[in-house]
Amino acid sequence: MVTRKAPTALPPLLFGGRAAQLSDRLDYLCEQLKLSAPSIEDCSLPTGHSAVSHSSAFVDVNGLKLTALSCSPVRLQASGKADNLLLVPLVGTGSVRVKNQTLRWKAGASAVWLPRCAFVDEGVLRSMLVLNIDTNRIERVARTMLGLTPDATLEQELQTPREVLMQVGRVSFETIFRQFASVVDQFVLQPELLRYSGIDDNFYRNVAMMLHPALFLDMDEASPGAAYARRRLDRVCQYILANLGQPLNLTDLERVGFMSRRNLHYAFQARYDCTPMQWVRQERLTLAHSHLVMARVGTTVTDVALNCGFSKTTTFSEYYNKQFGELPSATLARALSR
Q1: Could you give the C-alpha distances from 327 to 150, 165, 306, 313, in angstroms and in order?
Q2: 10 Å Cβ neighbour count for 237?
Q3: Could you tell me if 129 and 14 are in contact, meaning their C-beta atoms sit under 8 angstroms apart?
Q4: How far apart are CA 44 and CA 51, in angstroms?
Q5: Which domains does the chain have, with CATH numbers?
Q6: Euclidean distance between CA atoms 160 and 39, whole angstroms
Q7: Rounded to an integer, what distance in angstroms lies between the CA atom of residue 263 and that of residue 172?
Q8: Quick check: helix, strand or coil at residue 213?
Q9: When comparing pLDDT for 153 and 329, which is higher?
Q10: How many other C-beta atoms lie within 10 A of the C-beta of residue 230?
Q11: Cα–Cα dist 309/240, whole Å
Q12: Which run of H or of E encompasses 108?
C-alpha cells in the first residue's frame, strides 16, 4: 500500500487560482490535462516519489486551449497524435524525451515545442502554461504580421520538436504570457466572455514570434524584423541578378521574397529609391553595357538585348541611351573598332 505524504506546497497557477482545487489523484490530473492535450495518455509518479499534489485551470478561447498547471514532480506520457503543444514553464525545470532526443524546459530560459509527437515529460515541482496550438492559424497570423499574401510560402519550421527561448534580446515572453494570463484570470469565472476579449489573437501573435524570432525580432536593431526584412530583399535582388536574361514579374519577386506587393515596393523604394521593376531594368542595362563594351566580332545589339531580358530592341535602345548617353550601337561600334 502506497503511503501518501502531506500535500506539497504548490507554486501559484498562472490563472484560475481562485476556482482551482488541490488534488492528490493522478487520474484527475490526467483528466484535467486531457482538456487541453487529449494525447496525454498517462500520469505517473517518478521514481522515489510516492504521492502527488496538483492544481490546474483550463479555458478554451475561440479554439485556443490553455491549461495552467501547478504540480509536484510527475511523469507525463503522450501519444502526440493530434496535439501541437507549447510547454511554457513559470516555475521549475524538467525534460521531455522525444524518440532519442531530450529537450529541456526551464523557467525563465526555455520552453518546449511538441508538434504532433509522442513524448515523455518529467520535471520537478512546476508551474506551467500548456498551449494547444492550431498550426494553420499560427501560419495565417504570421503571414498577416509580416505583410505576406495568404498563399505566400512562410519560412517557419513547425514540424520539429525543439527547445524555444523565452528571452530574445530585450523581449521576455514569460512577462508577456503572464500579462495575457492576468487578462484570462479576470474572466476565468465567466469564460464565455473570453471570446470577446481577443486575447487568443494576442497569444497567437506572440507564440509566432517566440517560435521564430528571426522572422520578427532582431536583437541588434531598434525596429523589430529589420534584419529579416533586409534578408528578404537581399534574396529578391540575388534572384533578379541570377535571372536577368529571363522573364521577371512582380509575382515572381513576391514569391521569392515572401513579401506582399506593397512591402516589396516599399523595400525597393527605401533602399534604391525606385520600384522593383525599375531596378530590374537598371541591372539589365548595366549587364548589357558590360556585354557591349566587351563585344567580339559577330555580336549584335539585338542579341545583347535579348540575352539581357529585353524583348524589344527599340525599347532597349531608348532606355540604354537615357542611361549611358549614347545608343547601344555606338558602344558596340567602339568596342569592335579596337
Answers
A1: 44, 58, 16, 11
A2: 21
A3: yes
A4: 10
A5: 26-215 (2.60.120.10), 226-338 (1.10.10.60)
A6: 17
A7: 28
A8: helix
A9: 329
A10: 14
A11: 11
A12: none
Cα 12 to Cα 128: distance, rounded to the nearest angstrom: 10
Lowest mean pLDDT among 8-17, 146-155, 242-251: 146-155
Residue 80 CB: number of other CB atoms within 10 A?
20
What's the N-to-C CA distance of the chain in angstroms? 102
pLDDT confidence of residue 1: 31
pLDDT above 50 (res 306): yes
Chain center to CA of 220: 18
8 torsion bin: left (phi>0), alpha (psi -120 to 50), beta (else) = beta
For cell 515572401, what's the residue? 258
Q: Which amino acid, 247?
A: P
Interatomic CA distance for residues 160 and 335, integer angstroms: 57
Backbone angles phi, psi at 221, to 5 degrees: -115, 150
- Rounded to an integer, what is the distance from CA 31 to the centroid of its chain? 31
In the chain, what's the furthest Cα-to-Cα distance? 104
Helix (H, G, I), strand (E, B) or coil at 142: helix
Per residue in 147-158, pLDDT tens? 777 777 776 678
Asked if residues 200 and 62 have their Cβ atoms less than 8 Å apart, the reply is yes
Average pLDDT in the 281-309 region? 92
Q: In terms of C-beta density within 10 A (0-12 exposed, 13-18 middle, 19 or more buried), how is residue 274 classed?
A: middle
> Is residue 105 within 8 Å of 89, Cβ to Cβ?
yes
